Each structure stands twice: as structure tokens, then as C-alpha cells.
Amino acid sequence: MTFRLDETDRKILIELQRDAGRSLEEIARAVGSSKTPVWNRIRKLREAGIIGQQTVLLDAEKLGFEATFFVLIRTSEHEAEWQRRFLAALRARPEVMEAHRLAGDIDYILKVRVRNARAYDAFYQALISEVRIYNVTALLSMEEIKNTVALPL
Predict the structure, then answer these.
(1) Are 134 and 72 members of one domain?
(2) Rounded to whole angstroms, how far apart are CA atoms 27 and 30?
(3) Are residues 78 and 128 in the same domain?
(4) Keywords on this record (predicted)?
(5) Are 82 and 124 contained in the same domain?
(6) Interatomic CA distance for residues 15 and 10, integer angstroms
(7) Which residue range(s) make up the domain with 127?
(8) Nearest to 141 by CA among 85, 70, 84, 93
(9) How far apart are CA 92 and CA 130, in angstroms?
(10) 73 and 130 both lie in a single domain
(11) Are residues 76 and 122 in the same domain?
(12) 131 inside domain
């Protein structure tokens, strides 16, 4: 069953993506409604799974995580057991901010956030000690140009 979003739902979602920490009153004012209808819509959006876990965005650099690496992984292993171990290893590593399985020449891409290159090397050594990987290419991000979790509603 699909959930049909109307314009008010979209406005609410846009406001929540901007800052979900604002009061219900502020969000209602921004979308041109009152608190109770907005609260009911938010509840329905949560029940439908459109609004998931709420969290806080932290400033990684201010907390000492100054290096972002994009890690390209090729594997010669495609068995279910290897994949199970590999995915478990990724999920267990807090440095892995994102992981994607790809179509094409590269099998996986990871976004890894660490304090510095030495911390990346420790991550890399730990990962290859847990699972066999055919080829790894690490790309250091020199500058973050844009970073958002907001969907273009």
C-alpha cells in the first residue's frame, strides 16, 4: 500500500528535514497550519514508515574526524558466505558511514570517516584481516563541497 503525500505533507517533511528539533508550533506556523493537524500528519507519516529514526547531526571535524575516504572495493568472491562475513564486518565498523553495492567494475563503495590517515590504515588492516578482498582503492576527500540528507521534495 502506498502513502499519498499531499502538498501539506510535503511542506511538513521539508520543514522536518530542515530542522526536526524545532517545536511543533514552529513547524505548524511554517506550513500554514495549526499544531494538532500537523501532529496527526506527522504521526501518520511515521506509521507509514516515511519518517524513520530521528537523530542529531554532529560536526565531524569539530569532533576530530578530519578525514573522509571513499573506498572502492573489488572482490573475486561472490559466494553467500563471503558476502555475509563482508557485510557483517562493514556493519560492525563505526567508521563506515555509508556502504553501497554497485553495478559495474567496482563491487562496493564505502564512505569512511576517520581522524586521519593513520586511523584509516587501522580500519583497512582490520577489514582485510576479517575478509579477503581482491582490490581496494582509497580516495581521500580533499574538500566536502555538499553534504545533505534532505530529499528533494
Answers:
(1) yes
(2) 5
(3) yes
(4) DNA-binding, Transcription, Transcription regulation
(5) yes
(6) 9
(7) 67-140
(8) 70
(9) 11
(10) yes
(11) yes
(12) yes
Residue with cell 572495493: 73
* Whole-number Å distance between alpha carbons of 41 and 37: 6
Q: What is the DSSP letter of 2?
A: P
Distance (Å, whole) CA 90 – CA 73? 12
pLDDT digits (tens, 9 = 90+) for 88-136: 999 999 999 999 999 999 999 999 999 999 999 999 999 999 999 999 9
Is residue 63 classed as helix, strand or coil in its secondary structure? coil
Number of domains in the chain: 2
Residue 146: partners with Cβ closer than 8 Å, 6 or more residues away: none
- Grid cell 519518517 — which residue? 51
Contact yes or no for 111/98 (Cβ under 8 A): yes
Place of cell 590504515: 121
Same domain, 75 and 133: yes
Q: What is the pTM of this model?
A: 0.89
